[in-house]
Write a structure and sequence with these properties.
With 508 residues, this protein is mainly β. The chain folds into 3 domains: 384 residues, 7 Propeller (Methylamine Dehydrogenase, Chain H); 32 residues; 64 residues, Immunoglobulin-like, CATH 2.60.40.10. Helices cover 9% and strands 43% of the residues. It is built from 4 helices and 37 strands. The strands form 9 sheets. Strands 1, 26, 27, 28, 29 and 30 form a 6-stranded antiparallel β-sheet that branches. Strands 2-3-4-5 form a 4-stranded antiparallel β-sheet, with no helix packed on it. It has a 4-stranded antiparallel β-sheet with strand order 6-7-8-9, with no helix packed on it. Strand 33 and strand 34 form a beta hairpin. The protein is globular. 38% of the residues are buried. It comes from Porphyromonas gingivalis (strain ATCC 33277 / DSM 20709 / CIP 103683 / JCM 12257 / NCTC 11834 / 2561).
Length: 508
């Protein structure tokens, strides 16, 4: 396969994605109702129903009736919502006393998909809006806990029942040539033509994107994507790191113990050397995402440089073209048919930074500025590009006219946001719901940081580039930060083995 590196502009021109013009007509929030105490991350294809799950219980909310329509789970039943249909019924995985099952919940009863023999676990991964196609992963484990899984595609027959087929699993990955134990289908295009998944080889445990495409004969053939991005294959894969509990089994203080411990330390040193050499190259990693038309894959490229981490990569499914976005420590979370990718940036210490990227643009846009520019919508002032308040898993309706997400606050509250895009609803904003109690009360005045508590804590201060600029231990009540310049920082506060992050503003 021919490998080529494209400039960003050239790659954008080559990606076969239908661009959708997005106007700036007035849009607004939908009032969610005071009875919602669960995060929203699912939408029906037409946007009427929204839902999510919390603590193993799944919920569906009717935005026209302004009430929760369905509550499933609790006691000995765990329900993981996967998709909502236009009639309010749902597809979900559920776990009860008999094991795990997958199916449709409608009119008060479950209709389960037929389960292949010989598999103990698995997950329902994706259902098309018309419910004609669904993809599942089914799993087993080897005695050494190595995960073995296979991908299955379900198709609805004329009588309404579903038949399944097992998708072909590569015998070996194309880089390390070790056996592929695990393939997991993540999405299927609306027309059932493309299945997107990821695979993990049995030696290195690295994740590679894979697609199955339906040919003229109706069979699905696999292709491994992103072959031009790989690790430094001139070096051997380090495999799994050594485990002390497995190598050191003798009684402490005995000669055998000292010998085994020395062997373990030598194995760790050797593994670190192999890993350092192997990780000098680039590689795709993480779970991939795909638009619902099956044209573009969103994934992450490990740059080979620890200080840069990963950057988002949009791969064309039709050919080898791609767009490599110059934005680091970032992974995509969603790719829409309009060519917009939602990017979740994890700065040092786990701080989030939410940005959007649209094909045809030259830069990423902070999430709140994207909402304002595209739809004239304004997020809460506390958001500030995701440093302290950040966006949870977003959901967009199949027609692209509805957007929902959860805005999470560090004090344990959240706001569910439901947008009817390009419509003048002029309805009130969403509500607050307290999820947990945060023991920290942190604020700044001038260049002094106050913890609001007399219990000692450890504090680290990080600037907006993710660099540590100050550190103090056993701080009681306050910390003087006069040596820092005025500006925005993030404070990592650790107390009682619990760490929380806060945006602080230092002023002269």
């Amino acid at each position: 396969m021919k490998k080529r590196l494209l400039s960003l502009c050239m790659a954008l021109a080559m990606l076969p994605i239908a661009m959708c013009a997005q106007g700036t007509t007035q849009s607004s929030h939908h009032k969610l109702g005071s009875n919602i105490d669960y995060p929203i991350n699912r939408l029906s294809p037409d946007g009427r129903y929204m839902g999510g799950w919390k603590n193993g219980v799944s919920y569906v909310y009717d935005t026209q009736m302004n009430q929760t329509l369905t509550t499933l789970g609790g006691d000995n039943l765990t329900v993981y919502l996967k998709s909502i249909n236009n009639d309010g019924s749902i597809w979900a995985s559920r776990i009860d006393n008999e094991g795990i099952k997958y199916g449709l919940y409608k009119d008060g009863k479950w209709t389960d998909l037929p389960k292949p023999e010989g598999f103990s676990g698995g997950w329902l991964r994706h259902v098309t809006p018309d419910q004609k196609y669904t993809v599942n992963s089914y799993t087993n484990s080897l005695p050494d806990m190595t995960l073995i899984s296979d991908a299955f595609l379900y198709e609805r027959k004329e009588d309404g029942t579903y038949r399944y087929r097992k998708l072909i699993k590569p015998k070996n990955d194309c880089w390390t040539e070790s056996e592929v134990f695990h393939v997991d289908p993540m999405q299927i295009s609306n027309d059932g033509r493309i299945v997107l998944g990821h695979m993990v080889d049995g030696l290195s445990k690295y994740i590679f994107p894979i697609i199955w495409e339906r040919n003229a004969a109706g069979e699905y053939e696999y292709r491994i994507k992103g072959e031009s991005f790989c690790f430094n294959l001139d070096q051997p894969s380090p495999g799994n790191p050594p485990i002390e509990e497995e190598m050191v089994t003798a009684e402490p203080g005995t000669p055998e113990y000292e010998e085994q411990l020395a062997q373990y330390y030598a194995a760790v040193e050797q593994w670190n050397a192999l890993a350092a050499a192997f990780w000098t190259g680039k590689a795709l990693h993480g779970y991939p995402f795909m638009d619902n038309q099956g044209t573009t894959i969103g994934t992450a490229l490990f740059t080979g440089e620890q200080d840069k981490g990963s950057q988002p990569l949009l791969l064309s499914i039709a050919d080898d073209s791609y767009a490599l976005i110059e934005y680091y420590k970032t992974e995509p979370f969603m790719v829409t048919s309009s060519g917009t990718a939602f990017l979740l940036n994890r700065f040092m210490d786990g701080i989030h930074h939410n940005v959007m990227y649209t094909l045809g643009s030259n830069e990423v846009i902070p999430f709140d500025k994207w909402l304002k520019a595209e739809y004239d919508l304004t997020l809460e002032n506390e958001y500030l590009h995701g440093f302290k308040v950040f966006v949870g898993e977003p959901a967009m309706s199949d027609d692209g006219k509805t957007l929902a997400f959860t805005l999470k606050f560090p004090n344990g509250t959240y706001k569910n946001h439901y947008y009817r895009l390009n419509k003048s609803l002029n309805l009130p904003t969403s509500m607050d719901k307290l999820l947990s109690t945060n023991p920290f009360r942190v604020y700044s005045s001038g260049k002094t940081l106050y913890t609001g508590n007399s219990t000692p804590c450890d504090i680290r201060i990080v600037n907006t580039n993710g660099q540590g600029v100050a550190k103090a231990e056993n701080v009681v009540s306050s910390l003087d930060l006069k040596h820092l310049s005025a500006g925005i920082y993030v404070a990592a506060i650790t107390r009682d083995k619990k760490t929380e992050f806060f945006k602080i503003v230092l002023a002269d």
